[in-house]
Amino acid sequence: MATFFIENFGCRATEADAASLRRSLRASGLKMLDEPAGADVVVLNTCTVTSAADSQARDAVRKIHRANPSARIVVTGCYAQRAPEELASLDGVWWVIGNSHQAEIPRVIREGLMPGGESPTAATDSSGARSKDFIPLARLDDQAMSLARGPAKVLTGDIFAQTSVQTVQVEGAEGFMADRTRPILKIQDGCNNRCSYCVIPFVRGRSRSLAPDMVIEEVGQLLATGAKEVVLSGINLGAYGRDLVPRVELAQVVRRILDQTALEQLRFSSIEPQDVTEEFIALVARSPRIARHFHVPLQSGSNRILRAMHRWYRSEHYAERIKLIRRALPDAAIGADVISGFPGETDEDFRVTLEFIERLPFTYLHVFSFSARPGTKAADLGALVPAGITGERTRALRALGQQKAAAFRKLQAGRSLRALTLKKGGDTWTEALTGNYLKVRVAGRLPANIWCEARISVEQEDGRADLAAALNSRR
To answer: Which terminus of the chain has fewer CB atoms gathered within 10 Å of its CB, N or C?
Structure first.
């Protein structure tokens, strides 16, 4: 039996894509391995949000090829969609398949592994040149599978021609448990926004949504495999349903999940601030089955920089939404993305951002140094912030994020919180996650995917607050 391994990079949406690939490859008759060594096929599901993400993917190709020269490496994901030629030139790469044709990966691999299958170097189209034409998935059966000439075969197309969200039905508890304790369900893909720094709309396409009936069906499938928490994700999750006819709001499909399924806990990935309405916050506050956790991208606290970023809000509007969350949900986790060193960001802009974040009740930050992405408006702005200054600002923001996280953890001391056990653990403890996004260690080596009651205490180690938890009960 042929074997495969998938390594994933990037956001929750790519994690959901990787999980779907795992299930479909298993359904195709391949055996999944826990590491790339010895795998017949290695699939790298890439991110391209920063140049560092690109570099990480290239390094992974080189490392895997050195360790397992006989492995056939398939590169997919956002980097593969943006710059397939860069990846196709790397030694060891067999196929580069963009997001536009990711659903075809199982068939490409299956046919490529068949006796007499084409070798990468034999891949040409009818003219002997690289094809640039988009081939709809429904017509792919009528086309030659080999669409490029060179070190690897390339299968990409116009991502904006995609009109659906690719999903793969879950088949059996074994498939679910092999992926993760808390499965991610992607119900939206693509983005219609055009933030000046972001390349993602060009590699994910237009915003499109999974029909509500299909969402309910997918949740039911996950429940049948034993899932207790499901994370709803999307590239722009708050835009869910606006492309559907009739139009649907995210809150509507959330209510249907709560009303029509027995899901024990629902969690959301990132939601843009303009979509965190008072009504949506109230919906979360009313239901004990929704995790008390909001991740609301900020990017900058300076209105001047927000305008240059083409963000749709200003700092005062953002602050209002965060304060609404805290008033309605005093114990909620509130996280944010922040970019340091955006072109033209002055010392004053950074000071404003730092003070803005200090004033708000964040519980953690995800901080990124600005990375120019080809084809975006920010890449041509000029006025680049020197790398050394950007690095200093990034470190300052991350230090502030750690302070915010420690303060929030201290506030939870003495509370008894329900937590879901994860796969990670040691000889005498198991890692678990609370509804308000605190990772805790519960006593004992417990199975993954069970609820436990954890009493939170704070220990000091190297001057940083940490959490310990005593196991009270579990089910």
So the answer is: N
Which candidate, 254, 256, 250, places its Cα nearest to that of 266?
Answer: 254
User: Can you tell me the distance from the alpha carbon of 221 to that of 233, in angstroms, rounded to the nearest whole number?
Assistant: 17
Cα angle at 50 between 380 and 198, to 5 degrees?
A: 55
How far from chain centre, in Å, is Cα 441?
24
Q: Which two tokens stand for residue 398?
A: 């991350």
| H or E element that contains 470 | strand 464-474
- Percentages helix, strand, coil for the chain (3-state, rounded to 5) are 40, 25, 40
Q: Give the architecture-level CATH label for domain 416-474.
A: Beta Barrel (2.40)
Question: Which pTM was predicted?
Answer: 0.87
In eight-state DSSP terms, residue 299 is B
Taking only the tens place, the pLDDT of each residue in 238-271 is 999 999 999 999 999 999 999 999 999 999 999 9
Take residue 411 and report the two structure tokens written for it: 């506030």
> Cβ-count burial of 440 within 10 angstroms (0-12 exposed, 13-18 middle, 19+ buried)?
buried
Q: Where are the beta strands (DSSP E) in 68-170?
A: 72-77, 93-98, 153-155
